[in-house]
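Transglutaminase-like cysteine peptidase
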Amino acid sequence: MTSMTRKSAAIMLAGIAGLYAGAALAKPSRQVSLTSERMAQLQQVNSHVNSTVREVSDLEQYGREDVWALPTSGKGDCEDFALLKRKMLIERGWPASSLSITVGATSQGEAHAVLTVSTSQGQYVLDNLTSAILSPAQTGHVFHARQAGRGWITASGERTAEPVADLPVARFARVAHTSP
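Structure:
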């Protein structure tokens, strides 16, 4: 996420210092049978969004951090990419319950959001940092929370009613580097 500084990430992390970064996230409620056609849809949507949306920070675009919006201007940050990919897959017949926004940190400790897809062959990540469709383990990211309905479920299994669009992605940055 381009708009996040280390200082602001640290401030936003104060409330979740107890998260255990190594715990597996609970699976979304519905898995999709992964066929070659479905995998092609994932690849097409991921590549299309990654190549047509220009990455800019929320601070640059809106004058404030953590604005969750579809990138209708052709610009957005990581969660905006994920929201558009989710919308496009739903329009192609994917059940919304198989698609979750997942937040965490990149291997460099930067706050990041991706779209996670639950399939019969496991979970896959659609990420604005790569055109490849990867398993969560292959991304190099550490994931801390996943969309669960209108709220979140953390890696430790804790549920929060905090609305998805109101949760700052930066809140989950750097936990991997500070957790036991």
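The radius of gyration is 15 Å.
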